[in-house]
Amino acid sequence: MEPFSVHILGCGSALPTTRHYASSQIVEIRGKFFMVDCGEGTQIQLRRSRVGFTKIQAVFISHLHGDHCFGLIGLISTFGMLGRTGALHVYAPAELGPLLDAQLKFFCTGLEFEVVFHAIDTTSKQTVYEDRSLTVETIPLDHRIACCGFLFREKPTLPHIRRDMIDCYDIPISQINNIKNGADWVTEDGKTIPNSRLTLPAAPPRAYAYCSDTRYMASLADMVKGVDVLYHEATYDSSCADRARLYYHSTAEQAATVARNAGVGKLILGHFSARYEHEDGLLQEAKAIFPNSELASEGLVVQVLQRKQ
């Protein structure tokens, strides 16, 4: 199975602490590396993660609060010093475009690579990135400013042809792709071997959803239904539910409710308020509703595995 993992670089919220860095993650999928949010200090955490700087193909920014984007121009500057030549694609709310352009002109003259900006509409679900093996969709969120999450989903793959059937019916290599695409096999004596006997089903596509920052949204469960791993902000515990609503954030209990209603495989809690010296209480709240919950932490690598049906 191809690798699909999430490297947590930072899982704190707006106020700096000595325990957590600002929001940033690397999504590694089928040999490709994508950054999701780029708060201050991301480069230090990227070094610690041992994910190569030059491997990052694109950066997805959820919204324009500093703890999610202040690290971007510094990262781009470092790419320049490292001699990057391949284009860097940045997907973010439209308002970042002119700001990034001004920063590039002031701080990053002479780059030998192109920074390609893609303005995204945070108000509707849409595909913003697609290649042969995956798609990335936006997830509209309810925050104080334009904000969206991101859904990384593998594309379905072809069935696997059974090796014993190849040997049994002496199937030539030239016909394997046809069989993977649904063809039956006709033997020399005219007997038709159905495709269902020749192949095994492909593994179901895996999916990862990143949701930060947002008020509790009951409708979010439909947008992330059945994903294998959900990262959902849990800025506060339930005693601060009124504060969470006031500042457009969620509690751990609310994050777990979304996970349960969506039928996800695993919930990762993050974006912790600086008021907490530890997050054990948040985890207990979440587990009471959705047992397969886990706290994000800097350096954590989450494997995106197919959820149990």
List keywords for this structure.
seven-stranded mixed beta sheet; 2 domains; 18 strands; globular; alpha/beta; 309 residues
Structural write-up:
This protein has a seven-stranded mixed sheet with strand order 6-5-4-3-2-1-18. A seven-stranded mixed sheet has the order 7-8-9-14-15-16-17, covered by helices on one side. Helices cover 26% and strands 27% of the residues. With 309 residues, it is an alpha/beta fold. It has helices at 42-49, 66-69, 72-81, 96-107, 163-169, 176-180, 195-198, 220-223, 241-246, 252-262, 280-289, and strands spanning 4-10, 24-29, 32-38, 56-60, 88-93, 115-120, 127-130, 134-140, 148-154, 160-161, 185-186, 192-193, 199-200, 207-211, 229-233, 266-270, 293-295, 301-303. The protein has eleven helices and 18 strands. Helix 10 (252-262) packs parallel to helix 11 (280-289). The longest helix is centred in the first third of the chain and has 12 residues, at 96-107. The protein has two domains: 4-157 and 203-302, Ribonuclease Z/Hydroxyacylglutathione hydrolase-like (Metallo-beta-lactamase, Chain A), CATH 3.60.15; 160-200, no CATH class. The chain starts with a strand and ends in a 6-residue tail after the last strand.
